[in-house]
Design a protein that fits this description.
The chain is an alpha+beta fold and about 140 residues long. Helices cover about 15% and strands about 35% of the residues. The protein is built from 2 helices and 5 strands. The two termini are about 20 Å apart. The N terminus is likely disordered.
């Protein structure tokens, strides 16, 4: 086995899905979701993803470590509208130095059209909020399990 070879780009560690319905309060006068609301959908999926690995507030995160978002990016590919049912998929991409989480929003109401792809990168801190240069082993173990 070649240990220098990077993981394939399509590897999805611990994928989860969350289904939501677009509420009226998230759309503008044209009936289209304002782009900033997508990050709320990503956050909901990220929370479920972290909970699935026992890394939610109150587990290791909070009493021992902190996470904070250091980067986020979204590419919008199709609009979302009031009442659309969507699926937000989230999975871990990289976990060694920073925790990279990838997302896809699929519009279930419109022939499963992909509406957005995104990522956020989380850094880990100790309780004094000092940046850790690598993800602690006990967090990596939960992410690899």
């Amino acid at each position: 086995m070649d240990r220098c070879r990077p993981a394939p780009a399509d590897v999805r560690l611990h994928p989860i899905s969350v289904e939501l319905e677009i509420p009226f309060r998230h759309v503008d006068m044209l009936g289209v979701v304002w782009h900033g609301h997508h990050f709320k959908y990503f956050e909901q999926a990220r929370t479920e993803l972290l909970r699935s690995r026992h890394l939610d507030a109150g587990d290791l995160i909070g009493p021992r470590y902190g996470f904070f978002v250091i980067e986020s990016k979204c590419r919008y590919t199709a609009p979302l509208h009031y009442g659309d049912r969507i699926r937000v998929d989230a999975w871990f991409k990289d976990i060694k130095h920073r925790i990279s989480i990838q997302y896809e929003i699929t519009n279930l109401s419109r022939d499963n059209v992909r509406a957005a792809r995104a990522h956020t990168i989380l850094a880990t801190t100790d309780l004094d909020r000092n940046l850790l240069l690598e993800t602690p082993d006990e967090i990596q173990r939960r992410l690899r399990a």
